[in-house]
Amino acid sequence: MTNTSLTNEEKQLLLKLARQSIELAVSHQLLPVLILDGYSPTLREPGAAFVTLTEEGELRGCIGALEPYQPLVEDVREHAVAAALEDYRFPPVRPDEVKLLEIEVSRLTLAQPLDYQTGQELIKKLHPAVDGVILRDGMRRATFLPQVWDKIPDPADFLSQLCLKMGAPHDLWQRKKLQVFTYQVEDFHE
Fold first, then answer.
1. What are the boundaries of each domain within the chain?
2. Are 90 and 61 in contact (CB under 8 A)?
3. What one-character DSSP code corresponds to residue 71?
4. 55: which residues sit within 8 A by CB, 6+ positions away?
5. Cα torsion 141, 126, 153, 169: sign
């Protein structure tokens, strides 16, 4: 992501595209080809985003990319559909549920490695409510968006829950030096 913030118009366009794409996908309809020329340069440049779906305040799906590999507008569309249909934690969204969903888009900055020596130093270097965190241990990795700090505000608990999400023991971050990356997001929702 460049330092350029999205305009309100670009944010609304991405949210509308996400909703329309979910509506089509859950009804088993083909998505139209995106004509990139119709979008602003910012939306055409490579971008990484997570799309989070909630229903009555409860998580209903969340999928995204940690690194940009396609135009932001395509990334949002792809991950909106994936959040609705492919999040293994939830059954696929049904057509009658779409109207109940609230859609949030988080556009990620490029992740930066966080240098630390001990678990205590790691805790001190994190910025709660600002940093998204990626933990990596060999082939395993997991991330929490910065918004997760709202539900898990304690840094030690945050890292423990992230280890569990990665499929590792909760205290792995205290026993082993993991690869840690941080990023920030520009998030917006309906």
1. 8-109, 112-184
2. yes
3. B
4. 97, 100, 101, 102
5. positive
Lookup result for tokens 């909106």: 80
Tell me the Ramachandran region of residue 49: left when phi exceeds 0, alpha when psi lies from -120 to 50, beta otherwise.
beta
- Enumerate the β-bridge partners of residue 143: 134
- Residues in the chain predicted with pLDDT less than 50, given as ranges, are 1
Q: So what's the architecture of 112-184 in CATH?
A: 2-Layer Sandwich (3.30)
Predicted pLDDT at 1: 45
C-alpha to C-alpha distance for 114 and 125, rounded to whole angstroms: 8
Residue 4 DSSP SS3: coil
Amino acid at 134: I
Place of tokens 């933990």: 135
Domain 8-109 has CATH 3.90.1170.30: no
Give the largest CA-CA distance in the chain.
51
**How far is residue 129's CA from residue 146's CA, in Å, rounded to a whole number?**
5
Residue 48 CB neighbours (<10 A)? 24
End-to-end, the C-alpha distance of the chain in Å comes to 21
User: What pTM was computed for the model?
Assistant: 0.90
